[in-house]
Design brief:
By secondary structure, this protein is of the alpha+beta class. Helix content is 15%, strand content 30%. It has two domains: 33 residues; 107 residues, Immunoglobulin-like, CATH 2.60.40. The radius of gyration is 28 Å and the shape is elongated.
């Protein structure tokens, strides 16, 4: 005759093994559990806001400052919260002049075209088919390091409308 503890031990071990496998399989589907592990993916921190550019309204009065962020070596001016149409003039705060690269973040559907006037004039159309914010980077020839100011205007209508 088999002792009671040996007779129960086999089925209990099998039940424990099945339960353990089910629990581990369920835990892998939890999205936040991966962040508890030391080798889990760390969330990317948002870029800190900077203040590299001064904004002025078209008539020379103080204008609403738009958020500015560094994205690698490109200074991004965030126009996502801008009204449907408007304009402003930008001047660099630093005596060294403009950053090497300059871009504007716009939300399609709100802004249809962006016009930039500096050493050259350029029209940047915004595709209404885009799903999220779009960064429009200026070509290096649009402005020079010693350009005194850059005038930016935008409207909801795109070119040819």
């Amino acid at each position: 005759m088999i002792p009671f503890d040996r007779a129960v031990a086999g089925p209990v071990r099998a039940l424990l093994a099945v339960t353990l496998c089910a629990v581990l399989a369920g835990c892998s589907s939890l999205p936040r559990l991966g962040s508890l592990w030391p080798f889990g993916a760390k969330p990317v921190a948002a870029a800190p806001a900077v203040d590299e550019i001064a904004f002025a309204a078209a008539d020379g009065a103080a204008s609403t400052a738009f958020p500015q962020y560094w994205k690698r070596n490109t200074l991004v001016v965030d126009l996502s919260a801008a009204p449907v149409s408007g304009s402003f003039t930008m001047t660099p705060r630093s005596a060294a002049g403009w950053p090497v690269r300059l871009a504007f973040r716009v939300r399609p559907g709100t802004i249809g075209q962006l016009e930039v006037q500096a050493a050259q004039r350029v029209l940047l159309p915004v595709s209404a088919a885009a799903t999220g914010p779009v960064d429009l980077e200026l070509a290096p020839s649009v402005y020079l390091r010693d350009t005194p100011q850059i005038r930016v205007s935008w409207s909801q209508s795109s070119p040819g409308v």
